[in-house]
Design a protein that fits this description.
By secondary structure, this protein is of the alpha+beta class. The protein contains 29 helices and 24 strands. A five-stranded mixed barrel has the order 3-7-8-10-9. Strands 14-17-20-13-21 form a five-stranded parallel beta sheet. A three-stranded antiparallel beta sheet has the order 22-24-23. A hairpin with a 2-residue loop joins β18 and β19. It is elongated and about 120 Å long. The termini are far apart.
């Protein structure tokens, strides 16, 4: 019977074992390995690889042949290289296909993977031998015009494979084809792996934080007696971390004459495979509050080595196993859990290959077609934070979430599409809340504080393991690859640590050359930083360069820089108080929207148990809010009515959808508008610098802006324009996108440059700056008051502060300005206060 014939086959047809019934694979449901008929399992696996098909396509036959041609370069011979087979011969098998073909085989792999996977790999060798032999015989039959010869030879070859294992070992050097599993099993959290999962197949997700060097692990060692030259081979059966025991006595004809431990290893005749250890850590967004992220050791071999550098998000299928981490020979009852990887896929956490339901796509496209989608997205950013100064900040964070388009030039150079934003200003302005919320909305978000972060913690570190070897461990910017890194207290970082992230912010790579390790890691992430001025609060009477204690090299890498100031205005204070009171009152009544969270406060006074939600209830609520149906409903409602905000899961999914489906580019007309606008901005900055130098008496115009306007700012305008077009799923940047990008740039970076020049800036931020300047004295008034104090005060003479202020007021000076000047001169060390500030004297 030809298995290529167009008919349906089941796994137990024509696959009779010695027991002769369908129960040949497993005798019962116990986990006893003696109940598994391994020869029958091998035949079932072999026939699955040969006979499984989708319509008229034999899927795994084609994969085996392509693998064979890729590794040996010949599709009709089985004389494969030893090294090629050991490390490159691998095919992917989908668990869904295996369950569709035979549910018993799938159950065996799920319950006893360590037992049946070696049999599966050996069956793949048999299937490949049969397929190649049949193809060769078919070719010979066509050449000799003997159609029946191929079928006869195929049957003989199949019987030969069933009865001769040694021939396969000689032909394939005792190795097998690696089977890499794929499947959509329910993920098991790393912190939930317990003893009941031992020796079972699990699926886990996380971030690879470290990777060791690739080593060679012996799978079969060749021994030779040093006295009688007797040869013996021993196979490894104890897993990746186990040792191979050597025979204590010779196994030759006269073992007594050879003495104890006579065997020596012959390295040239041993078989090795590539072996690597990885460390998998939980994703930051799934770590419970107040808990440390859990990590587990991974063991990868052959075709999976060097596939996941630090910072890669992966989804693995692995066997839960144990090993003795102490390394001692004495037996101990406490072992360390590790995962033996049988399949690995890169988990596209940044939204590159996220799946969307048809209803989600319909809702997202309806939302993108709205003309006010930009306003809807910006007001959905941290809805619990209000204030006139937050409008532009929310729009900037929205642009940062969507980012621009990454580009790869013909010469190999890469241009980043990620947008970096800096929030600089007074305390209690919700800067940290913006950072926290952004890391929740971003597909990949990592939050860190500058005071508690070092250069190695942000970039990468080299760690020494127990063997004395060095390996890489990725930092925050590597773990956030494809997302956003939020750095709070950016000004508290040591200057040397800030310099370490220069390369990561612009080139989006991290170069490491330590302890003999020279490599380059990807860090394709945006930076959202928050910092305070030099004196804690922004001093309007000082220049921007005196308030911003950051080097121009780091400032130029930020696309947008916002100066966030606490304006003392009665109307603004009333509005903020009303909003804050509403947030607290609504939250105390169980409102969820005021807190901007999907879980709310977690308290309900009407509950019989006092209102505490247990962990299971919280998980159910979270799963309900993150389900595709809930996301589609929220997006459809906002797209239809235009009212309300997008919740966190919907916002995150929409960002992923836009980044996956759209990559806008500039048109010729848009490029001309941007180029002319950039030239005008540069010219305005030059004119302001010359005017400032003339006021200060410098004729050479040496005064430069605190934030230099360079080509990086031109690229920042391009990225902002592309992100605005991406929100609407448009492939080309429009004129309105360029206008909004220029407006954002003017009210942020340009406003920070013009903070001490008195030039007005349009927009809410410019209005805030004008109110602040009108409420505080000008620089000229302050200089006049300081000149009066220097002429009035005698060195080291103690005077009364109130009397000096009244004397200045009698001569036409503003008393408030004089008091302000006294405070500034005291902070500079020119004056020294006594008696709780009532008396002071001049010391400089």
């Amino acid at each position: 019977m030809d298995y290529d014939e167009d008919r349906i086959y089941y796994s137990y047809q024509n696959l009779q074992s010695d027991r002769g019934d369908a129960a040949e694979v497993v005798a019962d449901n116990d986990d006893n390995n003696d109940d598994v008929n391994l020869p029958a399992v091998k035949r079932h696996f072999r026939e699955f690889l040969r006979n499984y098909r989708q319509k008229q396509r034999y899927l795994y036959r084609e994969r085996l042949l392509r693998m064979h041609q890729r590794t040996s370069g010949d599709g009709n011979t089985t004389n494969l290289s030893k090294k090629v087979i050991d490390n490159k011969a691998a095919i992917h098998v989908d668990l869904a296909h295996l369950g569709e073909y035979d549910i018993t085989l799938l159950d065996l792999i799920l319950r006893q993977p360590a037992l049946v996977m070696p049999v599966f790999e050996t069956a793949a060798v048999d299937a490949l031998n049969t397929i190649i032999r049949k193809n060769r015989n078919d070719q010979q039959a066509e050449e000799n015009d003997v159609p029946e010869q191929g079928l006869t030879q195929n049957a003989e070859g199949q019987e030969e494979n069933d009865n001769s294992q040694s021939q396969n070992e000689d032909m394939f050097h005792g190795s097998s084809i690696q089977i890499l599993l794929r499947g959509n099993m329910t993920p098991t959290p790393l912190r939930s792996i317990q003893s009941m999962h031992l020796n079972t197949l699990v699926r886990c997700t996380g971030i690879v934080i470290s990777a060791s060097k690739v080593r060679s692990r012996a799978t079969k060692i060749h021994l030779r007696c040093s006295r009688c030259q007797h040869a013996h081979s021993v196979r490894a059966t104890s897993g990746p971390f186990g040792a191979i025991p050597l025979p204590q006595r010779c196994m030759g004809a006269q073992p007594d004459d050879c003495g104890p431990t006579p065997y020596a290893v012959v390295p040239d005749d041993c078989h090795f495979v590539d072996h690597q250890t990885l460390k998998l850590q939980e994703a930051p967004e799934v770590v419970p509050t107040g808990e440390m992220p859990r990590s587990v050791l991974l063991a990868v071999e052959r075709g999976v080595v060097d596939k996941a550098p630090p910072g890669t998000r992966v989804s693995i299928l692995a066997i839960v196993s144990l090993f003795n981490s102490s390394g001692g020979r004495n037996g101990t009852s406490v072992k360390t859990v590790y995962l033996r990887v049988l399949g690995m896929q890169k988990d596209q956490g940044a939204g590159d290959h996220v799946t969307f339901t048809p209803r989600e796509e319909e809702a997202f496209r309806m939302l993108a077609r709205r003309s006010d989608v930009y306003e809807i997205l910006s007001r959905s950013i941290a809805p619990s934070i209000s204030g006139s100064y937050t409008y532009d900040i929310k729009k900037a964070i929205t642009c940062q979430l969507f980012s621009g388009s990454r580009k790869r030039l013909p010469d190999g150079m890469r241009l980043r599409g990620d947008i970096n934003v800096l929030l600089l200003g007074d305390p209690s302005m919700a800067k940290s809340q913006f950072l926290k919320y952004t890391t929740r909305v971003a597909p990949v978000g990592v939050y860190t504080s500058g005071k508690g972060s070092s250069a190695a913690g942000l970039t990468a570190s080299v760690v020494k393991d127990q063997r004395g070897e060095f390996y890489l461990e990725g930092g925050a910017m590597v773990l956030a690859d494809g997302g956003i890194v939020a750095i709070d207290e950016f000004d508290k970082m040591r200057p040397a640590d800030r310099v370490a992230i220069h390369e990561a912010m612009e080139q989006q790579t991290i170069s490491v050359a330590k302890a003999g390790i020279t490599t380059v890691l990807n860090s394709r992430s945006s930076v959202l930083a928050a910092a305070n001025p030099v004196f804690g609060r922004y001093d309007e009477l000082k220049s921007a360069s005196e308030n911003i204690d950051l080097m121009t090299t780091i400032l130029s890498r930020f696309d947008l820089i916002f100066l966030v100031r606490d304006v003392r205005d009665e109307e603004l204070d009333k509005m903020i108080c009303h909003h804050v009171m509403g947030v607290h009152i609504n939250n105390s009544r169980g409102g969820l929207a005021a807190a901007g969270d999907t879980l709310g406060a977690g308290f309900d006074s009407s509950a019989p148990d006092g209102g505490l939600l247990d962990q299971q209830a919280r998980a159910q609520i979270s799963n309900a809010n993150t389900s595709p149906e809930a996301i589609a409903d929220n997006a459809m409602q906002v797209a239809t009515t235009g009212n309300g905000e997008l919740d966190v899961p919907t916002m995150k999914k929409y960002v992923q959808y836009c980044k996956a489906k759209c990559s806008p580019r500039l048109s010729e007309d848009s490029g001309d508008i941007l180029a002319s606008s950039y030239v005008k901005i540069r010219d305005d900055v030059r004119r302001n610098a010359m005017a400032t130098s003339a006021q200060n008496g410098d004729d050479d115009g040496s005064d430069q802006a605190v934030i230099p306007i360079t080509v990086r700012q031109l690229e920042a305008l391009i990225r902002l324009s592309e992100s605005l077009a991406k929100m609407r799923l448009e492939d080309e940047v429009q004129a309105q996108d360029i206008a909004e990008a220029l407006r954002l740039f003017k009210v942020s970076t340009m406003a920070a440059n013009a903070a001490d020049s008195g030039n007005p800036v349009d927009g809410p931020s410019g209005t805030q700056n004008g109110m602040m300047r009108s409420a505080l004295p000008s620089r000229e008034e302050l200089l006049r008051s300081e000149a009066f104090l220097r002429s009035r005060l005698v060195m080291h003479q103690m005077v009364n502060k109130q009397r000096i202020v009244e004397e200045a007021a009698s001569q036409g000076y503003d008393a408030t300005v004089v008091a302000r000047a006294i405070s500034i001169m005291t902070s500079r060390g020119e004056l020294q206060e006594k008696n709780q500030g009532r008396m002071f004297k001049r010391v400089k």
